[in-house]
Structure formats: structure tokens, C-alpha cells
């Protein structure tokens, strides 16, 4: 069994790069409105590097003062360290606030755009993709991708800034000590980056295996009832365990490889420290105090703020041998104390770079949604109509090219009720969807009061022509809110009035909370019949000129059928109506009926004409009432 | 508090299944962490004896020593983590499998946790949380606390007074962090809840897209979700901001030990009580303690959150099973199809769905259960097919209590087809074979043909939501599955709901044709179905079944007509035999 509902096709190496480039072009504009905050965060990153160095330097200077026995200066150093800690945390909180803002805004905009796009695409896109897949993209991929953008992007900047600042500082202290140490860091970075490249394929495989597990679970959860019914629990469990084992293998391999990198980087800190102890110590012993000469002046020039805070300019000027030794000891100490904080950014960058192929998968999934074509809604506004509907030689085929409606022609005069009858698959639902311009006919025209519907906007058609679908789809909220969905500006009185007009008032009042009863997700807390009544009241409050009704009375229990049928009759009263009658009980009410078979109208007439003669309609009625069984051999 | 402990015990039960591996890993990592304490001590010697004492040879030895310590510490940490990773993967799998097994055990109506998106979130993202707990969490918390104590002890040995005074701010930091975490806990739960709202809101809106479009309310529908999204984001943003503000304040307090150590230690050096090297080692240790405390609060934070996640998972794990766990192990002998139910009582939540229902079915009999929505038809089917056990009462096949049989062998002879057939992504043949994986291609083709799917290519791939199957074809997939299993007793739950008249008639025709003498019980709301059965049994809310002699065929019923028999409240006196309702 192949399960890949939520699985995007595995991306090849070069394709991943292409996707990333395309994603950058499409998605970077999302960062633009936040450029100010991003700049602020970046500035804070730079200041944070300066602060770390300032702290190192202060500790270093403090140890120098201690060696020289200057207790007052030691006290000043301690106070300076507190001041630095306060400044450091002000910088951090500024950075955090800026980043929280950017992250949250980015997630919100990306999600909102995905939601909006999904609501505005053509209906057929929803049919071809299970809604669970879309939900995953809106909620999880958006967040994941946002993470990549802000984390990977900003950490690269941060770490580069930090590396430069640190290198300058070390060089300023002493090129002799700095060089071996500085050399270690790029080597470390190069190895880390190469290592993550080597992880790329594993990362991709892990993602695929994971998607396999998720896709499998997603579908099995959907089929819980069937799995139980056929007693297939054990085999499904075995299947899941096999998939999990496959994933675990890939996952463990990848995390072990990643762990090697972490361990290696942890060890590198010790290499750097050993080099510093040896070379630094040797230089001091040989009488070359650290921190003298050109580089120190350079550092002094670059870090006026540190200088100002520390007030150590004078001390630097009068540097002697003893002070030099003291400073050297301080340097070593400071380096030892700050070694972790110095090298962690390099590790983080290496990890982030390893996520590139993951990021490509996320990007391609988001773009798949953002690249969906929205329904264009152009044309004139349909003026107020009387409800004269004219379908003229309409043919239609979906994107796959198979024509499902052939040359359909019929007319409904204002106030007339026309029925469409036919077996499932005859094209009834498609025809209904064409009438409200969910799709446009491949050929032929549909006119309302003489206006070609393909020339007027969708929203203006739907304001006057309403499709009431078979499934009464409700939203989590109160009954009143669901009715008001039909016309958002309806008053409470109008809502009740609409329900009363179709005879649903009594049923609604019997609910525990009356009009304020919460219906639950998708109306789950109401019975099918109650849901249908609410849906009909919703249509009533919308007060359209033309109603396209896909009737589904048959799925309601008999006790409710009468109420629902009465409601339908009242809703249709005085409006033009096209009714898909699954259940033939409504047929007798209609002015005219036509029978659709394989996308063609095969007969039409008044119900009386058809039911009394030798017609397909009469035959269908007899099938339903059990007078005849289905002719053998017919599908 | 009791609930919190319970949740923690549950979630930690998973990594602790691998007690030995976890112990080895934890001890190895502890050794690795402890060895890093040697670095400040080595630095002490390097500065005092090496640099200030002018001994290049010693510096070389120390440099090599640092490398050696680094190698040992990195290796130990590597090995410990590797072991933990493996345990973590297993723990996640165990938990996920347990959750899924529980979902399989639950009736979907019994718990909201089993609903699609929610269940998936639990199985996918919540279960992964155990990974974090195994790698960090409580054990790492203990490790860090241990290491911190050792660091602290070493620092005390170097200079008691300085260490004690420097640690005062640390106490404030720990208390502060715990307080902040406690405060934010509630907000964290709220944010998680809001996310679930967004999740179900998006799912609902997209599956109701037809209505949204019919009313041209695309804008309003997405605005509604965007509002939830904005609220979630604002709440989460403010939670993070609050946290980061507190963190900053606590960080400042947490930074105090270094200047304190430098100042007090510095004074000791000047007074000759401490060497420069010792001071450096002392400062380094206090900074390490400070960092460790940061890790401790981080892990404590993880433990706090794990309680929220664990409590959500427990809702699945602790939902009562609809089946008696003391199921028998006897393989089921070949059934004749006779079935009796005696005084079945089923309560779902507060509601009594079946109240002392009894029933006697002879082999090969065809029965319809009718009644309004909520009258207990489906529940009765489930009880009879042993998809759930009643609170009291007994179901017997051929005179034997069904609970004596092994469940798997039972399902090979008793099948209850749900109302909506599940189609998964795969070929039609895969979908049919699901019912019996060892079926040959010929058997699958035969079943498909008999179920009326002969015109449909067996190797055609179906989409997950089966958009390319009509409602009738979907039901036929279910029938083909049944034929492959060939059970002695078949239950059908509302098989013709949402079908138009002709499709319904054709499907019923197929059902009766493929029945081949099996006992067949159909729960239905469609009058057409009752024309095909031997006996109609009407159910009303929780009312007892009072079977009498097999009834005459039910008269035709037109629910559209106001005075139709079936349009009346069925069985006002509880449950009646079909055919006599209009009497």
C-alpha cells in the first residue's frame, strides 16, 4: 500500500537548490515589512559581540589589577562587570523583542496568505487534495519555514559578526597567540560545513521516511472504524512498526552523524585552549607581553565604548613587564572562561546549514499553495434580476478532458421550479456548479435575465443565485451565527424570522440553548435533520432570487423528513428554483422536470406528463417505491 | 499535584523501559561532565606554576593534558548521548505505537481525541516530545544538578567565603525561574489550546468550502481564521516577551557571582590567601555553576511542559476501552449464523443508549433495525458484532458468549461494515485486499466483480479521499471487502445513506445477491431497505427490543407524504416490530 498523501516528491540535489532560489525570490518579500526590526536585531547582534568581548576584556583587566595589588581598581572592575551585564541584557531583550515580533508577524502573514489562497482557488483543487494535507501546510510548514528563514539567516549573520569581532580582538591582544587560535576556527568551520554537506542526503532520506510515517498514520486514523470492523488491528500495527523501524534507522544514522559533529566541535574548544596555553604562556615567559603594540591600539580605536566603560586607557599607556605578565594571565583566564561562548555560534551555523534540503522541501510545499491560481473575479456586476435562467447548449469537461455534460439546454422562468433527476454520475452536481459559476462551460452560455454569467462577477451572481448543497455544512459557533452566515448584516430578529418562515423555529427552540446553542465542529452536535434545517434557514436569510438546491432529504430520519420537506417548500416559494431531486417525493411539487443521463437531457415535461407515461422518470419512481427492481445488467 | 505526578510517571515510563541503557548513558554523561571540571584546575596550575613560574615544559604538559581531558570528556559525552538517542528513538516509537493501539481500541464516538487532526497531532508532534525528555528532561536535570554540586564543592575547597557569597544571587535566580515558569504554565496551556482551535478551524473551513463559495464568503471565512491566527500569535508573542523580560532581569542577577568572585577573590589574592591561578579556577567554576544553573532551569522548563503534553496523551491512553480486556483466547469454530442477545445495556457518557435490549436471530435471517437518529441502531450493531461490549447483558453466537472467543478469529466470521467506507491511497485491488491481505489476485477480482465493481480497473490508483469514486462505488468497495472475508454474520450500518433512489436500489440488489445465506442485519433509515428483509425491528431511545414472530414484509413507505407510516414517530412505546407500526 503506497501512502504518500502528505509526501512531496523527493527533491533531487540540483532541484532542491533551484527550489530554494525560487523560494528566496518568492518568500523574501515577506521579510520586507520587518526590515526595521531585522536591522535592529542585527545591530543588537553586533553589540552583543562587542559586549562579550568587553566582558572578556574586563575580566582580563580585573585579573591584571589583582596581580598588581590594586584593590580599588578591582572594585571598579567588579562594578564595570555589573554595568556590562545590565547593558548586555538590555541588548538581549531588545534583540528578543525584535525577533519575537518578526517571527510572529512572519508566521501570521504567511499563514494568512495560505488560508486566503486556499479559500480563493477553484473548487476542483479541493476535490483533488484531501483537506488534511492543506491543513498541515498552513499550520506546520508555515511555522517550520519561518524558522528556517529567521534562524538560519540571522544566525549566519550573527556568527559572522562574532567571528570577525573575536578575531580582531585576539589579533589586537597578540598576533602570536591569536594566529594559531584564529586558524583553528576557520578550519573547524570548514570541516563542519563539509560534514553537514555529507549529511544532506541523510537529511533528505530522514524527511522522506518521516513523511511516510505521518502519511501512513494520517490515513489509518481516517480508517479506524474499518480497521476494527475487519479485525486488521494487528496487521496495521505490524505495518506501522515496520515503517517506524525504517524511520528510526535513518533517524539514528543521521543523529549519530550529527552527534559526531557536536563532539568534534566540543573537542575543538580544547584544541584552541591548549594552543593558547602553550603559545601564550611561552610568549610571556620569553618576555613578549601580550597586548602591546599596533594591534592593541587598533583594538582601542575599535572599541571606544569598552574603553570608556573600563577607564583603562591610562593603564594601557603605562604598560610594563609586570603588568604584561598580569594581563597575560588574565587573557588566558578570560579565554578559558569564555571559550564555550566563543565557539558555540560556529556549531550553530553548521547545524543550520545542514537543514538546507529540509528547507527546500518546506519551501516547495508552501509555494505549491501560494502558486495556486486564484479564481479571477472580473466582469460587470449582475444587476438585480427577476430570476429568468437560460442554459443554452452547454457542454462541460473537467481538466482531464473528459466531457461530462453534452449540449444541455433548458430554461427556468421567474418563479418556476424545475427539477433535475438522474442517477449518480449523470452530471447533475456539475450542472448545478456551472449555474453559480464554480466552473465555466466549455461551450454554450448560461444567462440570467439575459446576462451571460461568464461576463459578470462571481460574487454578484452568488448574491442572487444560491447553491444549497446536499451536505448541510455548518461551522463551529452558535445556531444564530450559522444562520447569519447567509447574510452577515441580518439582525437577530431577521435570523429568527428566517427560521420561523421555514418552520425551523420550533426545532431550534427545543435545542438546549435555543439560537445560542453551539453546534460543534462541522455541526457535529446537531442531528442530520437539525443541521439541514439550520442550513435552510441560512439560505432563507440570504434571500436569493434563484435557488439551486441539491436536495438530500433521504439522509434524514423519517421523523424529521416531513419538517425538512416543508422547510424546503417554503424556502422555494416565490423564487426560481432548480432542484436536484434524489428523492422523488419532491418531484410532484415541481413545475417541470427533466431527466439527465450521462450528461444529456433525455426527457423533459411536467411531472404529471412524465409520471403517467412510459418515461424514465416513471421508471425511476417505481424503482424507488419498490414496484420494480433494477433491470438486470444495468450498472 | 497528584495528577502532575501521574502524568510524569506516565511519560517517563517510556524512556525508563530501557532502564539499563539509560543508567549507563546517564552515568557516562555524568563522567564526561565531571571531567570538564578538571579544566579550571589545570588552568590554575598553568597560570601559577607555568606562566608566573616561567616553566615552558610544564606548559607543554598542561597543553597536552587539556587535549587529553578534552578527548576523554568529548568521548564520554558522545557515547552517552549516542546511547540516549537510541533509547529516545525507541521510546518515541513505543509511545506512538501505544497511542495508536489505544486509538484502535477506542470507539470513535467515545473520545474527541480520536478525531482526525487532533489524533494525528498527538501521534506525530506530541509523541516526539518524549525524545526531548529522554535526551534532556528529568535525567539531564539530575545530571546537571549533580555536576553543579561537584563544581560547587570544588569551588568551596578553593575558597569557602567567596563561593558562599557568590552563590547568593544564584539562589535568587533559581527561585525566580521556578516562579516565572509556574506563572507561564497556564498561558502555555492556553496557547496550545488556541493552536488546536486554529487546527480544527482550518480543517472545518476547507471541508466546508462548498458552502463558503456558495455564499461568496471566502473573505469572511479566511478573515475568521486569520483572527484566530492573530490572537494565537499575539498571545504567544506576549508570552515569549514576558518570559524574555523576566529572563533578562534574572540574567542580571545571575551575572553577579563573577564580579563578586573577582572582587572578594581578588582581595584574598592581594592579602596573599589565594594564588592568581586559584582565583582564575574559582571564577571559572563559579561561571560554570552559573551556566549549569541556566541549563537546570531550561530542563526544568522542559519537565513543566512535559506535564501538559503528557496529560493530553493520557486522554487517549486512559480513555476506557469499549471492549472487555479479559477477552478470551478460544479460536472461533465455524458459525451457523445464529445470534442471541440478552438484556444488553450500553451507556455512552451519561446517556443510556441501549436499555435491556434482547434479540433472537436465526441463521440466515435478514433483519433491519430502523429508528430515528440517535435511537441506538449503530450501537446495537456494534454490541452484536463485538465492536463494543455492553455494560451488562450477553451476546451469544451459536449459544456461546462472544467474549470467550479470540477477537481476531471472531472478525473472520463476523463483519460489521461502517456507514462510510474507508478508502486509502492505493489501487482498488489494494483497497479490497485490505480486508484479507493473503487473498490471491483472482479472489480479489472475483470479489470486485461480485460487488459490482467489475467495470472499474483493479489497478487504478485511488486518491486518499476517493474523489473519483461515486457514493455507490464506495459502498461497493466495502461489499467487496466483505466478500473476501466471507463472514457468517454480516452487519451493515446505513449502507444506502446519501444515495439516490436508483443507486440505492442497485446496491440493495447487489447486497441481497451476495448475501448467499449469511445472517444479515442492516441498520437503516431508508424505507426501501426494509422491503428486502425478513423482519424489521424499530428502535427508540434506549428502549428494549421485544422480538416476536417474524413479521410480514413492511408496507411501502413514502416519507414525503405527510401521513406516511414511517414519518410518524416510530415506536412511541419503545420498540415495535416492523409492519405493524401503522396498525
UniProtKB/TrEMBL annotation, chain A:
It is found in: Cell membrane. Coiled coil: none annotated. Residues 389-623 form the ABC transporter domain. Pfam families: ABC_membrane, ABC_tran. Its main location: membrane. It is a multi-pass membrane protein. One of its GO terms (cellular component) is plasma membrane. This is ABC transporter ATP-binding protein. The chain crosses the membrane at residues 35-57, 77-95, 153-171, 177-196, 259-285, 317-338. It comes from Sphaerimonospora thailandensis. PANTHER family: ATP-BINDING CASSETTE SUB-FAMILY B MEMBER 10, MITOCHONDRIAL (PTHR43394:SF1), ATP-DEPENDENT PERMEASE MDL1, MITOCHONDRIAL (PTHR43394). Keywords: ATP-binding, Cell membrane, Membrane, Nucleotide-binding, Transmembrane, Transmembrane helix, Transport. InterPro entries: AAA+_ATPase, ABC1_TM_dom, ABC1_TM_sf, ABC_transporter-like_ATP-bd, ABC_transporter-like_CS, P-loop_NTPase, Type_1_exporter. The keyword Transmembrane applies. GO terms for molecular function: ABC-type oligopeptide transporter activity; ATP binding; ATP hydrolysis activity. Residues 39-358 form the ABC transmembrane type-1 domain.
From TrEMBL, chain B:
It is a multi-pass membrane protein. Residues 24-305 form the ABC transmembrane type-1 domain. It holds the Pfam family ABC_membrane. PROSITE patterns: ABC_TM1F (PS50929), ABC_TRANSPORTER_1 (PS00211), ABC_TRANSPORTER_2 (PS50893). Keywords: ATP-binding, Membrane, Nucleotide-binding, Transmembrane, Transmembrane helix. Residues 543-565 have a biased composition (Low complexity). SUPFAM superfamilies: ABC transporter transmembrane region, P-loop containing nucleoside triphosphate hydrolases. PANTHER family: ATP-BINDING CASSETTE SUB-FAMILY B MEMBER 10, MITOCHONDRIAL, ATP-DEPENDENT PERMEASE MDL1, MITOCHONDRIAL. The chain crosses the membrane at residues 21-47, 59-80, 141-158, 164-180, 248-270, 276-296. This is ABC transporter ATP-binding protein. It comes from Sphaerimonospora thailandensis. Residues 339-566 form the ABC transporter domain. GO terms for molecular function: ABC-type oligopeptide transporter activity; ATP binding; ATP hydrolysis activity. Its main location: membrane. One of its GO terms (cellular component) is plasma membrane. It comes from the Bacteria. InterPro entries: AAA+_ATPase, ABC1_TM_dom, ABC1_TM_sf, ABC_transporter-like_ATP-bd, ABC_transporter-like_CS, P-loop_NTPase, Type_1_exporter. Residues 541-583 are annotated as: Disordered.
Amino acid at each position: 500500500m503506497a501512502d504518500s498523501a502528505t509526501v512531496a516528491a523527493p527533491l533531487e540535489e540540483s532541484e532542491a537548490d533551484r527550489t530554494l532560489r525560487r523560494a528566496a525570490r518568492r518568500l523574501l518579500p515577506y521579510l520586507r515589512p520587518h526590515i526595521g526590526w531585522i536591522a535592529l536585531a542585527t545591530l543588537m547582534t553586533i553589540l552583543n559581540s562587542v559586549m562579550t568581548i568587553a566582558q572578556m576584556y574586563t575580566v582580563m583587566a580585573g585579573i591584571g589589577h589583582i596581580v598588581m595589588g590594586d584593590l580599588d581598581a578591582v572594585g571598579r572592575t567588579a562594578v564595570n562587570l555589573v554595568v556590562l551585564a545590565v547593558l548586555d541584557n538590555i541588548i538581549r531583550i531588545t534583540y528578543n523583542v525584535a525577533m519575537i515580533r518578526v517571527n510572529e508577524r512572519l508566521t501570521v502573514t504567511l499563514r494568512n496568505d495560505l488560508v486566503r489562497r486556499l479559500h480563493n482557488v477553484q473548487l476542483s483543487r479541493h476535490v483533488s487534495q484531501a483537506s488534511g494535507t492543506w491543513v498541515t501546510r498552513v499550520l506546520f510548514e508555515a511555522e517550520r519555514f519561518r524558522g528556517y528563514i529567521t534562524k538560519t539567516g540571522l544566525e549566519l549573520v550573527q556568527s559572522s559578526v562574532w567571528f570577525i569581532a573575536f578575531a580582531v580582538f585576539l589579533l589586537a591582544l597578540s598576533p602570536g597567540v591569536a594566529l594559531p587560535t584564529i586558524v583553528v576556527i576557520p578550519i573547524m568551520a570548514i570541516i563542519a560545513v563539509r560534514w553537514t554537506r555529507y549529511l544532506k542526503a541523510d537529511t533528505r532520506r530522514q524527511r522522506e521516511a518521516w513523511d511516510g510515517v505521518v502519511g501512513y498514520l494520517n490515513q489509518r486514523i481516517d480508517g479506524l472504524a474499518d480497521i476494527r470492523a475487519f479485525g486488521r488491528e494487528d496487521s496495521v500495527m505490524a505495518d506501522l512498526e515496520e515503517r517506524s523501524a525504517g524511520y528510526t534507522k535513518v533517524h539514528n544514522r543521521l543523529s549519530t552523524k550529527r552527534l559526531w559533529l557536536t563532539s568534534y566541535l566540543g573537542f575543538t574548544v580544547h584544541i584552541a585552549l591548549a594552543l593558547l596555553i602553550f603559545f601564550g604562556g611561552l610568549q610571556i615567559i620569553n618576555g613578549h607581553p601580550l597586548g602591546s603594540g599596533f594591534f592593541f591600539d587598533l583594538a582601542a580605536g575599535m572599541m571606544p565604548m569598552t574603553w570608556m566603560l573600563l577607564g583603562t586607557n591610562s593603564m594601557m599607556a603605562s604598560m610594563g613587564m609586570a603588568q604584561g605578565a598580569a594581563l597575560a594571565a588574565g587573557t588566558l583566564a578570560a579565554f578559558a572562561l569564555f571559550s564555550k561562548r566563543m565557539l558555540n555560534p560556529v556549531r550553530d551555523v553548521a547545524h543550520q546549514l545542514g537543514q538546507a534540503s529540509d528547507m527546500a522541501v518546506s519551501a516547495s510545499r508552501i509555494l505549491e499553495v501560494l502558486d495556486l491560481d486564484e479564481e479571477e473575479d472580473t466582469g460587470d456586476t449582475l444587476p438585480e434580476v427577476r430570476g429568468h435562467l437560460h442554459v443554452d447548449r452547454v457542454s462541460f469537461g473537467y481538466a482531464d478532458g473528459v466531457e461530462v455534460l453534452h449540449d444541455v439546454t433548458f430554461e427556468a422562468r421567474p418563479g418556476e421550479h424545475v427539477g433535475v433527476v438522474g442517477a449518480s454520475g449523470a452530471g447533475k452536481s456539475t450542472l448545478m456548479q456551472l449555474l453559480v459559476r464554480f466552473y465555466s462551460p466549455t461551450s454554450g452560455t448560461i444567462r440570467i435575465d439575459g446576462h451571460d454569467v461568464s461576463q459578470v462577477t462571481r460574487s454578484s451572481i452568488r448574491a442572487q443565485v444560491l447553491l444549497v448543497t446536499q451536505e448541510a455544512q455548518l461551522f463551529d459557533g452558535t445556531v444564530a451565527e450559522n444562520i447569519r452566515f447567509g447574510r452577515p448584516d441580518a439582525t437577530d430578529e431577521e435570523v429568527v424570522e428566517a427560521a420561523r418562515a421555514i418552520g425551523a423555529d420550533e426545532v431550534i427552540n427545543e435545542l438546549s440553548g435555543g439560537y445560542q446553542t453551539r453546534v460543534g465542529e462541522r455541526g457535529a452536535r446537531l442531528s442530520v435533520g437539525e443541521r439541514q434545517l439550520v442550513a435552510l434557514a441560512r439560505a432563507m436569510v440570504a434571500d436569493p432570487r434563484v435557488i439551486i438546491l441539491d436536495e438530500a432529504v433521504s439522509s434524514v430520519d423519517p421523523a424529521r423528513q416531513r419538517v425538512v420537506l416543508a422547510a424546503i417548500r417554503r424556502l422555494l416559494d416565490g423564487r426560481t428554483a432548480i432542484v436536484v431531486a434524489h428523492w422523488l417525493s419532491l418531484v410532484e411539487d415541481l413545475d417541470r422536470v427533466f431527466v439527465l443521463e450521462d450528461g444529456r437531457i433525455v426527457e423533459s415535461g411536467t411531472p404529471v406528463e412524465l409520471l403517467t407515461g412510459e418515461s424514465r422518470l416513471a421508471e425511476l419512481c417505481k424503482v424507488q417505491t419498490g414496484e420494480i427492481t433494477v433491470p438486470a445488467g444495468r450498472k | 499535584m497528584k495528577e502532575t505526578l501521574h502524568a510524569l510517571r506516565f511519560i517517563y515510563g517510556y524512556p525508563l523501559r530501557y532502564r539499563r541503557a539509560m543508567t549507563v548513558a546517564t552515568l557516562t554523561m555524568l563522567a564526561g561532565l565531571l571531567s570538564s571540571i578538571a579544566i579550571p584546575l589545570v588552568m590554575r596550575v598553568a597560570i601559577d606554576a607555568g606562566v608566573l613560574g616561567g616553566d615552558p615544559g610544564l606548559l607543554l604538559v598542561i597543553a597536552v593534558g587539556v587535549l587529553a581531558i578534552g578527548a576523554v570528556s568529548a568521548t564520554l559525552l558522545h557515547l552517552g548521548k549516542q546511547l540516549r538517542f537510541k533509547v529516545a528513538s525507541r521510546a518515541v516509537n513505543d509511545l506512538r505505537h501505544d497511542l495508536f493501539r489505544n486509538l484502535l481500541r477506542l470507539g470513535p464516538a467515545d473520545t474527541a481525541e480520536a478525531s482526525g487532526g487532533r489524533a494525528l497531532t498527538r501521534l506525530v508532534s506530541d509523541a516526539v516530545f518524549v525524545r526531548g525528555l529522554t535526551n534532556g528532561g528529568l535525567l539531564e536535570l539530575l545530571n546537571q544538578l549533580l555536576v553543579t554540586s561537584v563544581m560547587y564543592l570544588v569551588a568551596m575547597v578553593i575558597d569557602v567565603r567567596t563561593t558562599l557569597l557568590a552563590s547568593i544571587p544564584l539562589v535568587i535566580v533559581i527561585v525566580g525561574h521556578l516562579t516565572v515558569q509556574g506563572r507561564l504554565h497556564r498561558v502555555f496551556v492556553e496557547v496550545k489550546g488556541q493552536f488546536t482551535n486554529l487546527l480544527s478551524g482550518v480543517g472545518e473551513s476547507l471541508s466546508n468550502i462548498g458552502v463558503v463559495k456558495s455564499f461568496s464568503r471566502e473573505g469572511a471565512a479566511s478573515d475568521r481564521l486569520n483572527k484566530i491566527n492573530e490572537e494565537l500569535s499575539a498571545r504567544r508573542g506576549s508570552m515569549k516577551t514576558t518570559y524574555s523580560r523576566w529572563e533578562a532581569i534574572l540574567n542580571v542577577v545571575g551575572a553577579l557571582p563573577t564580579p563578586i568572585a573577582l572582587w572578594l577573590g581578588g582581595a584574598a589574592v592581594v592579602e596573599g590567601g589565594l594564588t592568581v591561578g586559584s582565583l582564575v579556577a574559582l571564577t571559572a567554576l563559579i561561571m560554570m555553576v552559573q551556566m549549569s544553573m541556566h541549563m537546570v532551569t531550561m530542563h526544568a522548563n522542559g519537565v513543566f511542559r512535559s506535564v501538559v503534553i503528557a496529560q493530553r496523551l493520557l486522554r487517549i491512553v486512559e480513555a476506557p476501552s469499549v471492549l472487555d480486556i479479559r477477552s478470551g483466547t478460544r479460536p472461533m469454530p465455524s458459525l451457523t449464523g445464529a445470534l442471541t442477545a440478552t438484556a444488553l445495556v450500553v451507556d455512552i457518557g451519561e446517556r443510556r443508549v441501549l436499555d435491556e435490549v434482547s434479540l433472537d436471530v436465526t441463521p440466515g435471517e435478514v433483519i433491519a433495525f430502523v429508528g430515528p437518529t440517535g435511537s441506538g441502531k449503530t450501537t446495537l450493531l456494534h454490541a452484536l458484532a463485538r465492536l463494543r461490549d455492553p455494560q451488562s447483558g450477553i451476546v451469544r453466537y451459536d449459544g456461546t458468549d462472544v467474549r470467550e472467543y479470540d477477537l481476531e478469529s471472531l472478525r473472520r466470521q463476523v463483519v460489521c461494515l461502517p456507514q462510510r467506507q474507508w478508502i486509502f491511497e492505493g489501487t482498488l485491488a489494494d483497497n479490497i485486499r485490505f480486508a484479507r491481505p493473503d487473498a490471491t489476485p483472482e479472489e480479489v477480482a472475483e470479489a470486485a466483480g461480485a460487488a459490482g465493481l467489475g467495470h472499474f480497473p483493479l489497478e487504478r490508483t485511488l486518491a486518499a479521499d476517493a474523489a473519483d469514486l461515486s457514493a455507490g462505488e464506495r459502498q461497493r468497495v466495502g461489499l467487496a471487502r466483505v466478500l473476501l472475508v466471507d463472514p457468517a454474520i454480516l452487519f451493515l450500518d446505513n449502507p444506502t445513506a446519501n444515495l439516490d433512489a436508483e443507486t440505492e436500489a442497485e446496491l440493495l440488489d447487489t447486497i441481497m445477491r451476495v448475501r448467499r445465506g449469511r445472517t444479515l442485519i442492516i441498520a437503516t433509515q431508508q424505507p426501501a431497505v426494509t422491503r428486502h428483509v425478513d423482519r424489521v425491528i424499530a428502535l427508540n431511545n434506549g428502549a428494549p427490543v421485544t422480538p416476536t414472530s417474524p413479521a410480514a414484509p413492511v408496507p411501502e413507505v413514502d416519507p414525503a407524504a405527510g401521513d406516511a407510516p414511517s414519518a410518524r414517530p416510530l415506536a412511541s412505546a419503545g420498540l415495535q416490530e416492523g409492519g405493524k407500526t401503522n396498525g
